Amino acid sequence: MYIREFNDPGCQDVREVGGKAAGLAQMTAEGLPVAPGFAVTAAAYRAYLEADGLKEFTRSVLEGLGTGRNQAAFDDAGHRISERFTEVPIPAEVADAVRAAYAKLCTETGVENIAVAVRSSATAEDSVGASFAGEFETWVDIVGADEVLKYVHECYVSVFAGRVLSYLAEKDIDPHAIEMAVVIQKTVRARAAGVMFTISPTSGDRSKIVLEASWGLGLSVVGGEVTPDRFVVDKVGLGIADRTLGNKIIEYRRGDAPVDVPAERRDVLCLHDDEVVALATLGKKLERIHQAPQDIEFAVDEELPEGSNLILLQCRPETVWSNANRKPAFDASAGMMSWITGSISGAATPPAHAHDASHQH
């Protein structure tokens, strides 16, 4: 089974799809909206390593490292493995399965040649620990089945990158204990985005849900570059108690630079009432699941049809009211990257990290 869609119960098996994909599948099972996509399983990676003697080749290169191992030796080994991997394509039956899943994603979202993020979702025995997640790559705005396959292949190559090999050696982990699953997920195209608190961040009132949102990606809200629109919703009954128009003069659409918001949209609230209520409903649900007030980042995806266009990006316990500093999940300095690939997975897993930013294509 080379493909698991997020709504497939088999996609909750961490050993087969890795932590990232399993987190997305769990949220999907709970009825929480994440950017649509699918996982390419560890079985596909195993099939690749079996092709053309790759597993034996990687073993022989790693055994040849001997004991006097320095970074240069690891880099050299990584380079040799990468060159060999370049010569070996993904097996046809895996490639066909990925192509079919990508075509289905295009059909289901109604977006032809949909742009996706290709994200590593490494699996490993529990003993390896989750500290490993940050070692791998994410690529965004990948369009077309051929390109998707190219970056799935890049994910496979990344397991044997020099810096990863030295990290594994330091932790005394055999690189063959890592299996690379891959998450393919729609790139979020935000018409509007922002933050929702299931408690009033100013008064601590547990009976209110507060949303702050602006046009485009949420970078402008987190970076304090705009005064966002503010909505207050009564938790009981979900009536909108207050709507305050912000000062939304810039927005981030695509690319790292903000653009001016056209005059006709400046004085318009960026969320419709039904979106505010739907988001507040999701906020209540997340608060119930996590048994505590939540701080949630969301986007309204302009490419998806109404009714399935609200996307949750990140969720964690609310900390403002308990006087802890709130650090945005999306590091403004990491730029667009973390917003585009940002996708909620579990309560406290941060999304794409800063070193991803150098891999924009």
Automatic annotation (TrEMBL):
Keywords on record: ATP-binding, Kinase, Magnesium, Metal-binding, Nucleotide-binding, Pyruvate, Transferase
Catalytic activity: pyruvate + ATP + H2O = phosphoenolpyruvate + AMP + phosphate + 2 H(+)
Record domain Pyruvate phosphate dikinase AMP/ATP-binding: where: 15-330
Pfam families, A to Z: PPDK_N
Keyword set includes Metal-binding: yes
Cofactors that this protein relies on: Mg(2+)
One MF term in the entry's GO annotations: pyruvate, water dikinase activity
Protein family per UniProt: Belongs to the PEP-utilizing enzyme family.
Name this polypeptide is given: Phosphoenolpyruvate synthase
Organism for this UniProt entry: Arthrobacter ginsengisoli
